[in-house]
Design a protein that fits this description.
Helix content: 25-40%
Number of helices: 11
CATH topology of the largest domain: Uridine Diphospho-n-acetylenolpyruvylglucosamine Reductase, domain 3
Radius of gyration: 20 Å
Strand order of the largest sheet: 5-6-9-7-8
Distance between the termini: 58 Å
Low-confidence stretches: none
Mean pLDDT: 85
């Protein structure tokens, strides 16, 4: 039995070459700060350490350009970065999922997003923020929305030999704010993310991204609710109607109707909380 070989490249090109050197069609599996090139042959996998590749370990924020998070960085450190706490608070909302927090904090974005079935507590805020991932592989660079990546099954959004280099969040718009709320209400585990863009009066919505997740892993945008909010002035009736549309988007199939009313009630409650918290954050940062 051959021993596993570990390499420590210093450039993206070296990482790509090592992955291609594996037998068969390598689809690298991220594990912490390493990529494991699985092969179709009998040889041991190649382990590629990512700690010395600058692009994979960057954490940069520019007010005009937004936030860039290297895929080899542990989530715990990213969530402590002041611009994340102050400017992308919705991302921090999803940073404390149920389960062993220390294990979650050590996981990297390459591991969380690149292996299929990514954690919804991370995905929902990223989708609401319009985040994308930069991908490098045999054919060079590409960029993909997190929303598109996460609707694929078992990481099929990445092609053979490709790997995530970084996560990119656009610059925050003035008069905008987002929030993510998760709970186990009415016997169903679920979450709602809301990102709102307000007009100068801070009462009229000019854009929204509303994302829902339902256990075990369904994630989707509430598009009818987003369309309804455009041009609306926020009051109790508008919040309530938006929450109803979000709940309708999550209505279970007929064969799952035994808990339908409890789930719809829970979604309405969570949606109201997420919308109100996002609205408060947008109003507290009127200048950007």
């Amino acid at each position: 039995m051959m021993e596993t070989e570990t390499y420590t490249p210093e450039t993206l090109e070296e990482v790509g070459a090592l992955l291609l050197a594996a037998d068969g069609e390598p689809r690298p599996l991220a594990r912490g700060t390493s990529l494991i090139a699985r092969s179709q042959g009998e040889s041991a996998p190649i382990v590629v350490a990512l700690t010395h590749v600058p692009e994979l370990n960057r954490l940069d924020y520019e007010e005009r350009d937004g936030l860039l998070i290297g895929a080899a960085l542990p989530l715990g450190g990213v969530l402590e970065f002041p611009p994340v706490r102050d400017t992308y608070a919705i991302l921090a909302d999803g940073g404390g999922p149920a389960g062993p927090g220390e294990v979650w904090a050590r996981a990297t974005f390459a591991e969380l997003l690149g292996n299929g079935s990514p954690p919804t507590d991370l995905v929902v805020p990223l989708i609401c923020l319009g985040a994308s991932v930069a991908v490098f592989g045999p054919h060079g660079w590409s960029e993909m929305a997190v929303e598109a990546l996460c609707v694929k099954v078992e990481g099929a959004g990445l092609q053979a030999g490709e790997f995530i280099v970084d996560v990119r969040l656009p610059a925050r718009s003035p008069r905008s704010g987002g929030a993510y709320v998760r709970s186990g209400l009415q016997g169903a585990t679920m979450g709602v993310g809301a990102f709102l863009l307000m007009q100068d009066d801070l009462d009229t919505c000019c854009g929204a991204r509303l994302t829902v997740w339902l256990a075990p892993g369904d994630v989707f945008r509430a598009l009818d609710a987003e369309r309804f909010l455009r041009g609306k002035r926020f009051d109790d009736d508008v919040v309530r109607r938006t929450a109803e549309l979000i709940a309708e988007a999550g209505r279970p199939r007929p064969d799952q109707s035994d808990r339908a009313e409890g789930r719809l009630s829970g979604l309405r409650e969570l949606a109201c909380q997420a919308i109100q918290r996002a609205l408060d954050r947008a109003r507290s940062h009127p200048g950007g």
